Amino acid sequence: MSSRQKLTKRFVESITPHEKDELFFWDSELKGFGLRIFPTGRRTYFVQYRNQLNSTRRKKIGLHGNITADQAREEAKKLLGDVAKGSDPSKDHQQEKLKPIFDKLAAEYMEVYAKANKKPKSYKEDQKMLDSIILKRLGYKKLDEIATHDIQHLHHALRDTPYMANRVRALLSKMFNLAIQWKWASANPVEGVSKYKEQKRDRWLNDQEVQRLFSVLETYHNQSVANAIRLLLLTGSRRGEVLGAMWEQFNLESGVWTKPAHTTKQSKMEHLPLSLQVIDLLKRMKARSISPYLFPGKIPGEPLQDIKKAWKTISTKAEIPNVRLHDLRHTHASHLVSSGLSLSIVGKLLGHTQASTTQRYAHLADAPLRQAAELFGNKVERLTTRSS
Hints:
The protein is α+β, with helices and mostly antiparallel strands. It has 3 domains: about 1-100, Double Stranded RNA Binding Domain, CATH 3.30.160.390; about 100-190, Tyrosine recombinase, N-terminal domain (DNA polymerase, domain 1, Orthogonal Bundle), CATH 1.10.150; about 205-340, Intergrase catalytic core (hpI Integrase, Chain A, Orthogonal Bundle), CATH 1.10.443. It contains 16 helices and 8 strands. A 5-stranded mixed β-sheet has the order 1-2-3-4-5, covered by helices on one side. Strands 6-7-8 form a 3-stranded antiparallel β-sheet, with no helix packed on it. Strand 3 and strand 4 form a beta hairpin.
């Protein structure tokens, strides 16, 4: 059923809905502007027109109560004006609805890119950044609506933690580059956002702190965790490499740990010579082990996942504040360099592929160099003193 009448608030609200059928009323003042009444009583304004292909289209304007009849008529005029200029509001609206939102990009990034290219730890870190930080700000936005200032505001909100701010920035940049590659976006809004300067941490344990740490490890109730920490310090290896290590990777006769490519940061197989202290520790562990992993976890068939809580307890008891587990790796490297080993040798032991990574320890090489210089200077002094 349909009829023509000037659509006003009084008229619209006076109509009794049909029990089964929808009712249509056309505005007498503006051709194409109409009202649709559902059996439920819901009333919506719409505009009907023919597009350039002469196809009839209908576009909803709004719900009566949320918008007045006069407001709906003005919107209908605007839309009909757009039609006269060649636009197709209904099609444009559908295309707008189909535009990908950031939430969809995040899901596609994790499923298509991260799952195939990231290591489990990095995959989890990306998911955590998305869930705890990024999606709360950008998840509901369409990609072409996200501007540089949106990224800048998010980056600025994390200014107290520059490292995290920059990691979020890097993740967003990668995601938008992929969106461009997938034809979901035309530009990367992250490009105009500068990184924060990060303060490099130079924290490692001195001799007294190492002594206190090993003293606490001797009496710690969980010796599996204690051994993991011992191995972290004695090998200088990364936490993931140690916790996920399997017995099949070790040759205790030749004293070599062969790290598979999928476990190393550089995705390359590494062969690490083991000290006598490490070999002795591993032999004692192996004698009691029934798992393929050095450090079996709570879930059968899985390695130990995390020891952060235990480390907090141990480091507090050992009175070594502000030390992360990763600082044990720095400790290993710094003591080697201070003992006179070259940066290139230390870099190889740590699995560094770039010399610049090991260069942070360069200043520690001054002491053995100075001792060497003084050694020859003292010899010359002795020789010249005798001759005189």
